[in-house]
## 1
Amino acid sequence: MVLQKMFGVLKMMIFILREGSSGGCAIAVSTGACFAAIGSDTGGSTRNPASYCGLVGLKPTYGLASRLGLIPLVNSMDVPGILTRYVDDCVAVLNVIAGHDPRDSTTLAKPYKKIILPPANKLSIKGLKVGIPVEYYSTHLSEEVWCAWQEVAELLEDHGAEIKEISMPNTEYSIVCYSILNQCEVASNLARYDGIEFGFRANVNLSTEKLYATSRSLGFNDIVRNRILTGNYFLLNKNYETYFNQALKVRRLILNDFDKAWEEVQVLLTPTTLTTAPKYNDFKNKTNRDQCAFQDYCTQPANMAGKS
Amino acid sequence: MFSNLKLSKLYFRYILHSREFSTSKWKSVVGLEVHAQIQAKTKLFSASPTDFTNPVNRNVSLFDAAIPGTLPVLNKRCVEAAVLTALALNCRINPISMFDRKHYFYADLPAGYQITQQRSPIANNGFIDFQVYDTDSHKRSYSLRSCIKQIQLEQDSGKSLHDETHSLVDLNRAGIPLMELVFEPDLCNGEEAASLIKELVNIFRCLQTCSCKMEEGALRVDANVSVHKDGEELGVRTEVKNIGSIRAVAGAINYEIQRQMALLQDGQKIVNETRSWNSINKITVSMRDKEEKQDYRYMPEPNLPPLYIAMGPTTWGCVNADNIRKLIPELPHETRKRLKEECNLTTEQAVILVNELKLLEVFSDVILKKKLNTNLVANLLINVLLFFVNKEKMILEEIVIDPIFFGETAEMLQNEMISHKTAQFLIGEMLKLTPKTAKEIVISCNLLQINDEDAIRKRCEEVIEENPKMLQQYLKGKQKVFKAFLGVIASHSDKVNMKKATALLKEILDKYKNK
């Protein structure tokens, strides 16, 4: 999470949030401190801050770019995301990082064909089939974002694209499904922070079990502890079918939505976030789960489906 | 928990009363789980070496130390080894298998989970056939089959070293490839379990998929043991973990069966718990005092795609099972069959040669090069060489057998150039790494066998004359004295052809009888 004092509004002392775990990357790129940045994207962490900062944020398809070195959150959804100021820059970075990596077994074995963009004056979107998923009209969608969405759709249509409304009926289940899978994988990935090799170590010598328990309850904050406990609960032998496996089935339904959409259209046009960048005071009053539900509604299904 | 004192009392009471209540009322059930380190140069998911002799924490990559952001990459050699082993053990290879994370906290498990194959393993439904030698009932042997539920690939954990104040962790073993073989509970006692493990070791060695160096922990056995009364439901089981030698397998299981019987006989209950074998005091000891069952919170390993194995019409996969099947060498049971049928060896001879690959190598080599009596060669290996090695407390794996020296010795023995005693002497010289050839020793030490019948007859007559008392006893009908005469003859000289001596002695003594 990144708090940025907006240069223009500094006097008014209003904090605007450039939210998402790769917010730092977004600030660095948008201020010109660097040419491009690589963030991680598990549910929208690259695209959301890019959107808030007026940048290009790309989440490559799962398996297109190697995850080696990426600190995992949800291994089955994590991808290295790209943040740049221009689309050309983004393509340049993607062409470098994409392709099979023998050290990441989940990357696609198929050789990567580099993307070469034609010059702008030769670009055409004539006949491009653009899908607008109706389920993305969330009740929480702000008017400003809704207007921008409309505007872009019209712009595309004016230049020859075919705009088509489509249905992705399982979109609304994505967040709840995500919260189960996220918590399970988080519980698993954070198991290594036991105070022995990694993480905070409490000053307890009574027993190894006591050392683990104290270190981990002191070393993790409420949000993380909550995720670890619920994640482990979902993974208990008696709960595995009810929660984890059920979430995997729902995940498959979400993937099916995408596969069905591709039969009709070539790209989807959706908002990235439901609102423009929130103010700190509005944001801090929400619980972590609401924050997530609010921020990742439009970006998250793509991670579920492994799509870009 | 029971103190050791109480335990030994119970055990004692069981022994005392064992005649009063027939043990046949009790049935014991034993099922094994075997962890075998796969013979591979690198670890299961990393490029670290597996060399056991390296210093502590030398064979550790970033992945082995569970550094965040590192990823597992499956070692193809390990898949091949597991498929080869599974095929040799008559298993069904699964065209798709998966990896799971098994979570538990332990200092030598740096990631907090072990990558294993719980839900869909690489192979299922196999079996192993083996011979059981019951030492108690006069070497009676019977054949048995134990079914294999599954074979799975998994990582080994690191090692914790404890002293009174510190616990130290060595991650050299962390990530070493393992095959876990889960057997059905279809055995009855320690001897059966030990015989199964012995045959499994033979198969592993033959396939070269596991070194089976139990002293290095390359093969570890867990035994599930329960007892119940005939006709009743299965009893509560205990698990004896990490048994580190074949002898300990038999000892630990038999102890555990008797401990459980004694407790039940005493009206007490068996606690479902994990125990360890104390090889010094020859008892099993409870390892954890918590009775709650661990929940390992299995989860599919998200960093590894499903493992595909090509077979039949499917050509796509990490390895091809049909090609691997062609690599299966002659398996121990086939070797034993060949030795019995083609070389006319007895079952026992065949079993010993197959159990001791070193002897089998020499046997095959000598038989191939020289036209020798196979029985004579096998006897020389087993009754002379192996006997000598055991008597001198040498380690078979470490000794050097010179096949040329051995072959010459066997040849001279067969041609009656030397006596059996001389052959024993020569084998001893060979194991002491003599620079001379067998023939040179025989000639330089003047060890050629005395085959001249007149000379042997003379020797026999001398011995009889020197021992009039023995002669009297013999003539009174004491047959044993005949062997005593032979002993005296042999004790005078190692060179006498004892076969001829036996015949001549009989002839001479018969003459005395008829006088």
## 2
Amino acid sequence: MLILSDLVVAYGAIKALRGISVKVPEQQIVTLIGANGAGKTTTLRTISGLESAQSGLIEFDDIDITSYKPHQIVAAGISQSPEGRMIFANLSVRENLAMGAYLRRDKEKIKQDREYVFHIFPRLHERMKQQGGTLSGGEQQMLAIGRALMARPRLLLLDEPSLGIAPKLVQLIFEKIQEINRELGMTILLVEQNAHLALKVAHYAYVLETGEITLEGPAAEIEQNEDVRKAYLGE
Amino acid sequence: MGEFLQQLMNGLSLGSIYALIALGYTMVYGILRFINFAHGEVFMVGAFVGLWSAPAIADFFGGNLFIAGPVVILLAMVVCSILGVLNERIAYRPLRGKPTIIVLITAIGVSLFYQNFFQSVVGPEPRRFPDLIPQTRVLETDYLIVGSTPLVVIGTAFGLMWLLRFVVLHTKVGTAMRALSFNLQAARLMGINVDRVVAFTFVLGSALAAAAAILFASIYPSVHPLMGLFPGLKAFVAAVLGGIGNLPGAALGGLIIGVTETLVTGYVSATYRDAVAFTILILILLFRPTGLLGSTATEKV
């Protein structure tokens, strides 16, 4: 569904991605794990059009979207829950969700999708009229994922959903990620520093080190890999 | 007492005009983080549109000012909206993402361009703005005379501000404006077309400035190429006073500046008229740089 080929992204003279190739097949959860600064967030930002690729190709359903603008990428069917959540603190929960559906005109379906978001994250329903900034970290993460779902994407990008959240909620959020994948058949590209969690929920995994893919394979195999266990799973 | 009420009335009408202009400064700042110093010149152009179109429009409606007045205001709003969007498209958009100081200097350049262009093409001499507000005495008691002008000015200004409030709080594009002003990147990830929302912001701000110009010229009927300078600067001070980026703050700041200026002119000396706003600016920058309603903004990394 999504294919990155030989993608190079640079910030000035520094190459953040040195030619990575990644495939995300339909209805799967694919994870990109790696240390801080390996280029995980850059990858997602480039897919969403916030960074531009120096060379290489991004294809989505056989269409070259490498030079698309962010709003064209959302329209094509890719939405993102970004690193640090980036909730609109000055907008209510309801308005945050409405912004997620910004490009859509199908009012009835938007309503249904909001009901679905409230179904998986009932906490958001309780806080519907509250300002985004008053939510706890975990609730903000739920809102960020819910907001991304409101675009009715075909591919969901999740950047570090475990970052800065109480461990209890992290568990819950990862269960919900699996639920979204199962119930909606949603294709998900998940970026995580917490390799342990990510490998548990994902079907396929890529290991990113200083801008290069050093290892890839089915998540269960990667989890058993000696080097990965030492480097990322703390064994 | 009577005189004070009279002054207060005049102050509120001037203040509501400043408020309309200040809203344009504060909206653009809220989204693009720069002061659009050419805003005063959009105001000036609005007054000229009124000056040139009013006779024909009044004629067309058989001298009926109740229809002609609103039509003149609407025309000025439309023309200035287009002008505001053009300014943004030609002068500011190519500089998106560049350091603020560059955009700021460009804005001053745009402002100087309009002043000098109008001075050379139209001429620097002041012209008399036609009467658009029917002159009647609405209320007359022993100690107070309320004419129609301040009531129309205040009514129109507050009506427009209410309309703006509705757009910003209850429409999709208004919500997008607020989202954009909080976090540009997140807004782009939602699929919000930033260029379009920015253009819409300029439409709103310029339209309000145009309406303000017609109201202003109805009180001080002298139209000339530099007439945007002082109202523009004072409205800028109003926006800072209220807390730059904060819409209710801009409205409040405008009213405070207008009333203070009028009271000082009436009770102290007209010499200090233009000093009032700048004294307030210095005080606010010294004691409450975030403005009356502004929150202490945390610098985003």
## 3
Amino acid sequence: MHDQIVDIIIREVEEVNKKLPNRVPVELRNNAPLFGTDGALDSIGLVTLLVAIEQSVEDDFDSPLTLADERAMSQKNSPYQTIGTLAKYIESLLGGSHG
Amino acid sequence: MDNPQNLLITGTRKGIGKYLVEYYIEQGFRVIGCSRSAADYELEHYQHFCLDVSNEPAVKQMFFEIRKGYGGLHVLINNAGIASMNHVLSTPMKTVHNILNTNVAGTFLFCREAAKLMQIGQYGRIVNFSTVATPLQLEGEAVYAASKAAVFSLTQILARELSQFGITVNSVGPTPVATDLIRSVPKEKIDHLLARQAIPRLGTFEDIANVIDFFIQPKSEFITGQNIYLGGVS
């Protein structure tokens, strides 16, 4: 499931990359920084990406998903720091019904 | 309408919500509605969902189905609301939680999920419901008035956070209207309240729809974060 989620994230990041001055290096896959100290995304870029990923995951897994987390805007503990941490976070949310 | 817009209204089983469903279908919108219990009516171009507006999984499931079935959303009218007439000293906490859950959390949840669908098309109109009970500082309506003050605060800040997606967020503040919401309020209290309005009469469903019409028209794109009270209350 992890690889499938990473592929969805990369697909959506590539869309966002077209509009960003600093692109997210998707070729790093799991290690590509998204948000936080090394991330290319600002908070608006991040929420736009999250909505796109949320809808894409919903379509592929045919199940509603909410990407909302207390730590979202934290520079240190955000689950959105890298493509890998985001994929893990989504996996944990889907775990209940798709484990 | 050549390309009908999709319009979602909460609290549509009866009263103002039901009126707005019929009114906006007549205007050519595809209307989606919801309420805690089933609606006792069926209309062409209308789909009803049964849910509690503060139940996140149920609301999320509904928006998932709206996206799959309609592709997007243009207008949200957060009409669902509950009130409770009581003195502060005899108001149970359960009432406080219920009012805040439906009026504040429900409005927030619908705004959040609607905005996700609206940003797909970079267009959206959200109308929330405030009340004249807040500026009139109505005794006996402390929790209700406070919950609606919170709704207006949400309205103002969401207007700023969502403007970059082409979404406007405004609120309408009705005076008392002859609905279930005021059925339990004594007549003298209503008369006293009406006397404090610039135009001292009960509001009508048409009065409310008129303000909503203004907020949701495409050319109102420069109107956001605003509240309009009916009856000349300020």
## 4
Amino acid sequence: MLIRNLKLFAHFVRGSLLAVASGSRGYYIWLLALGILIALGATAYGNQLTHGLITSHMRDQVSWGFYIGNFAFLVGVAAAAVVLVVPAYVYNWGPIRDVVLIGELASVAAIVMCMLFVTVDLGRPEFVWHLMPIVGTPNFPHSLLTWDILVLNLYFLLNWFVVTYILFTAFKGRKYNPRILLPIIFLSIPFAIGIHTVTAFLFTGLKGRAFWHTALLAPRFIAGAFCSGPALIFLIFRVLRKFGRMQISDTALFKIGELLAYAMAINLFFVGTEVFTEFYAQTAHTVHARYQWFGLHGMSSIAIYTWAALCFNVLALIIFMVPKFRLNMNILTLGCVFSFSGIYIEKGMGLLLPGFTPDSLGEIYEYTPSLNEVTVGIGIWAVGALLFTWMARVAIAITAGDLRHATVSRQIGP
Amino acid sequence: MRVRVRGYYEHKEVPAEGKFYVPIACQQCEDAPCTTVCPTGATWQESDGIIVIDYDWCIGCRYCMAACPYGARHFNWGEPNLPAEDVNPNMHILGNKPRTRGVVEKCTFCIQRVREGRMPACHEACPVGARKFGNLLDPDSEIRYLLDHKRTFVLKAELETHPKFFYFWGTEGRS
């Protein structure tokens, strides 16, 4: 039985590799474009490895920047798969189940990107093994960073198992066994909340940084994740429906729009409560929020992004709330673009930079990422897109019935 | 993509009109937030109270810099370029040994000196004797006398990091 399954799994892997190796002209152009971006990113990272993080614009005052901002945002995207998992499996609601598989694939790609963003932020990535158990000395349970690494890896394994299991059983031509799958999916729900909560606690746990030392940070992270993740999955679906032969009903897509209405309303409510608390009864600590919304001493390059994020999110909420807009596929798409970009600003660098500005001694260092940092970041996003493309290709081939054990055996022999 | 800075110390000549100077260094907190957050345990408090970093074990994640409320930790963003003739051969592995690129460093109260019973370099260099250093546990020490008899304060006391770096007014009658 085990031997047979291993043999089948080997076929599954070979079949998957065949599926990603061939495609239309458009597919190759897409791969080429991603390949170029990855090569550019790798070159920029090579430059960083040669000269050090001085190639970034991070300095002692703002010691985390673009990389950790992207990391915090992407943890949210990874966590958001759960939003779709709950209705699909728990309530056994049909149309959205197609959404889940793609959502889980997006999570896997997002976690890989998270790990890459943290790795490129390290001053000495060659010593990353100091974090690992047995060979290293992880400062567990004291350091929240060790918690984050732990839950991210476990969440990655859970998601990876779920998608592999669903696809492998479909490959064998069978239906998945809910008694194996459901407990793991149930487990992945608290983990999704967990990865984002722990990531928020990374910041909340720092008593010297007043801007982040608020109990609202973790709930805000979760609310933001529920806005950015489903929006991204919606956009992916529209693309896959157009280019990827993916069958997905309008009902499922509109359901995402409905979920987004709740998520964005809560997210904006949280923004409002935070703004009220900061500005109605101001303290010395309000200086960070002032920098975030208005700038300080004429240094206000971040303020325009803060207001842009607010506008994007408000527009998104209007689109999600008004049935006439929400049930129009093109307007809903626009809403998802607003939601995703609004949260990218708000939960990425918008959250990070005011925490460091002014710094703990009152110095204002107005950080903007260097070209090298941005190029490395684009490379990582391209890696995520490539990984997702390949996984989605296999998933679509299998769910569409093109990639089955029977057909693969004929192609590659028994 | 320009970077603008408004520093807290931007005068060519000191003292500048209307300014009050507060020299700062690692506060050697009793409850140091920086050591708790280190994911690899590369920084800790020695039994004599000094917070140190193992420069060979630090991976350069800079979480400790985010945790420090005093801006006392510094990162080697580029390749350190201390000329060979300026390197102090009297070294301590947790103190003034040359750091590499990509690790965090900090003040160690000149561990290479104080462990030999000498004073930190800043104490020795100060032309007016404004810095005092000593054993807090020794009831006869000068530092103990100052803490017991002068008006002292610590920075950001509300954070309860319990610094072992105190500020005091040496002149009687002045606030």
